[in-house]
Amino acid sequence: MGSLLAGCSSSASHQQTAVSWAEHYDNIHDLTAHSTIVVAGSFTAVTKQTTSGNNPSTDFTFTVSKVLADKAQTTAAGSAITIHQTGGSMSDGTPVSTEDDPLFKVGETTVLFLHQYSPGHFYVVGGPNGRFETHAATTKSAGVAEVEPFNSETVQFTGSVDQLAAEVAKP
Known about the structure:
Layout: E1 2-10, E2 15-21, H1 28-33, E3 37-52, E4 55-70, E5 80-86, E6 88-89, E7 95-98, E8 109-118, E9 121-124, E10 131-135, E11 146-149, E12 159-160, H2 161-169
């Protein structure tokens, strides 16, 4: 999770809040060490939006297609879990998100490094650091989905989901 800073920028249609992440990770090993589970899958629904003061948050349903690591051994492929993320809509309908970690989108496919804070409920470790985009297979990757870092400032890894799983499994 992050801690909110004082500054924010806004436009007529969207407000962005600056966040200082409590933890930052430099590599896959550190992300894995601080994660309860590492999963690949897709966002299938927005399940809840709440606002506490000026801090909205959103819960998403995430359907797991592959488990790359699971310390608690409680999640299987096909499971639906809840991902909690800072950001959402204010009571007046104004959308709010963090500058470097925009809200997930229904249909988005990702690999996520997650911390479980209650049974079946998770948040992404290190915000954008624990978030990797997946893209459909290309001719180059011979039918295998490719994984990329969420942005250039986060942990860097490029390869297939299976290659990332092998990296996650390293001691």
